[in-house]
Each structure stands twice: as structure tokens, then as C-alpha cells.
Amino acid sequence: MVNVHIRVDGRGLDAALRALKKALEKEGVTGELKRRQQYTPPSVLRRQKTKAARVRERKRALQQHEAGAREQPQGRRLTRAIRKGVGRAKR
User: Fold this and answer.
1) Phi, psi torsion values for 52, nearest 5 degrees
2) What does the mean pLDDT of the chain come to?
3) Hey, where are the domains in the chain?
4) CA distance 82 to 24
């Protein structure tokens, strides 16, 4: 449970409400409420997690490829380049 203390001084109620919203946002309460509004099955969470990982990997590979190559692969070619290990350090 989150404990948030907001004092209503001479600033008024509107300022106190703004401070409360900011404090709740900082604690992550609003994001948690949005996440819990609807049940998401574990299979969907896994799919979202792997999709995000693929996007991160593709972005990282693209940045490395831009730094070292003249022509950058796109679409399936980029995916194949990632699988082959283009731009990665060899072990």
C-alpha cells in the first residue's frame, strides 16, 4: 500500500489535487490501476514480452549496422541479419 501525504496550505485545493496526482504518478499507482483494469492471460504477457524484445533487438542491430555499414538491410533482410549475427561480436 502506498502512503502519500499532501498538505493543503494556503495554496488551495486545486494545487493540492495537482500535487496528489503528481505524487501518485511518481509512485506508479496510476499505471498499476490501468494495468489491473483488465485481466491479461500469461500467454498474452509472454507474447508482448517477446515482441518488445524483438523490437529492441532490431533497433539495436539497426543502430549498429548504421554505424558500420554503407547499406542498411530492411524488413526480412534485417531480421536475417540479426539471426546471422551481423554487427555482433564473435565469441
Assistant:
1) -65, -40
2) 82
3) 1-38, 40-91
4) 40
